[in-house]
Amino acid sequence: MRSLLLLGSALALASQGLAQEEGEPVSTVSCDPESKICYSGYKDPESEIFFGIALPKEPKDPYDAIIQITSPVRHYWVGFSWGGDMVWNPLTLAWRNGQTTTASARFAYGITLPQPYDQAEHFYMKGTKANDTHFTLTALCKGCAGWQNVNDERYFLPFNGSTRFAWAYGANAVEDPASNTSAFNVHEAYGKWIHNLDAARIDNFDEIVKANLLSDPAAPSTPAQVPTTIVTSVLATPTPSNKVAAAIPASCNGAGSPSFQGRLATGWKATKIVGGMTNPRSIEFDSAGNMLVVQSGKGISFHQMSAEGCVTSTKMLVSLNSLNHGIAFSADGKTLYASTMTQVYSWPYDAAAGTVGTRTTIITGMYQGGSHLTRTLAMHPTQPLLVVSHGSNSNIDQASGDARTARAIIKVFDLSKIPSGGYNYVSGGWNAGYGQRNDVGITFDNNNHLWGVENSGDDFRRTINGQSRDIHHNNPGEKIHYMGDVSLPNNAWYGYPTCFTVWQPSDFVDKTFKVGDWFVQAPNSTFNDDTCAQRATAPKLTLFPHSAPIDLKFDSGNKWMYITYHGSWNRSPTTGFKLVRVEFTKGADGILTPVAPLSSTDAAKDVFWNPDVTRCQGNGPSFSNGCFRPAGLQWDGQGRLYMTSDTSSNGEVWILGEG
């Protein structure tokens, strides 16, 4: 199940906005008698939120814009998307703070809490206020009308003709209303509309701005609780650590206290080694023992390590906000690979110096948008083969049942034969299986065979003879997939988007199932549960529904597979938010297999978990609402396991071990 779902949960609530996504502009001109600003404005009829935009008469990139947002106070926060999408464009957020309104510049690089955006600033203008019924933001925004898109190209808001904008609002209060960097929770609803920007261009733009800016904080009309200019704060680099003589250090200097308390299995130790990171995801260690971490929406950070496993120094190795999850090294450690939503890049890498050379694009053409935006990478241990996992573009992406769409698939690319301009993901490479809804975690075992963990579907119902029954709470199960030797094409189908596995058989009243059996949501004479058993490649193990497994690693002996459960959004109470492990053994054929049978419900053993998972919040999160959130895993050269927790802007890395 996809955790951190910021879009899908509101689809049912957003039909009024989506109706305006195509067609003629619905904005109209309205003038503010106090400020004399005339806006091209739009008021959503359902939410009753007004959005007004004013632009210079003859704008040239880069240019400033005036935005006005007025909302009923029943909406705790309101968001405006300058590019019409939740991800990969600047966002202006506004929320009530006493008798005034706070503005916040944000940018979402994936389906996660939008991070503070330091490329944009809001300057408050007259009309920014709040009372018992409404709050209003009026602000000049520098940096909102142009930005770097997902393909690392400059894009700016077209000022001739019309464009698509989008809105969202939240049903829960932000964490700190006085702070423009506050965490906040998932939106309750969102919508889109077509806006006329010709009507937004006004005469005397500079004079009107000057006359309305609240430049004097002491002036009566200036909001007293917030500064005139909002600039995103920068977190300090952790203080270098001192050596601690222990296999798992008791503490690491400069790491700070854990953001959230955890519980450990008997015999285990866990220590926070660094904090203050921005959505830390995947981890790699280079040939010199340095730790590299993908910070989604920021780039790749480089951390020198002590012998005890603590961080001694930190720097940004690659500053590139389109990177969001995937990272890998070539077998010789001299080439670094990382992925965006749409591309895979490579850099020459020097481990001793901790530097990269000139970036090269090696894979293009991956789907832009959709529900699953990460593209996980894994390098074959002995051959120049790069494996790239690509999720579906929605909960049920029907088209991906055809492998030629190159979604819900895992593909392999021979890096010794990269064509000029790089591979196209859709037409290049070969399959390592398809019909894997979203195998965010992929890894190799000691046989150099590939494994993956799948985030399965959400909001499921079982329909028999027109009668529909909700089964989503404890179905379908997540999966552990075995893909095998990726040096050979694997065109096996792993079931998605039609076939899913049972976790709680009692939810099905029309048929007797056991855990791990295949089922379809609406069986018919053409395609039913039995069809799945005949055509689909079964998983090796079924995991608890909605756990959202997003990384997995075998230990050195391949006795245990460790899996991070990123946590649920589509279940109440929540589940996941922990590190587990599954025991493996070798069969007579030398192939690894879980010790537990497919029908097991207790194969995954807890290692590191939150003490009260019901407090964990998967829809946002608002600083995770009291929980750490496991994401990436990697072993260092001394056999210690490292794990990221990607909560908000205070992400952490932990070191774990037994003994």
From TrEMBL:
Domain of life: Eukaryota
Record domain Pyrroloquinoline quinone-dependent pyranose dehydrogenase beta-propeller: where: 264-657
Keyword Secreted in record: no
Keyword Signal: yes
Signal peptide: 1-19
Keywords: Signal
Ranges of residues in domain Cellobiose dehydrogenase-like cytochrome: 31-206
A Pfam family it matches: CDH-cyt
Xref: PANTHER family: CELLOBIOSE DEHYDROGENASE CYTOCHROME DOMAIN-CONTAINING PROTEIN, DEHYDROGENASE, PUTATIVE (AFU_ORTHOLOGUE AFUA_8G05805)-RELATED
UniProt name for this protein: Iron reductase domain protein
Native source species: Sporormia fimetaria CBS 119925
Species classification: Eukaryota, Fungi, Dikarya, Ascomycota, Pezizomycotina
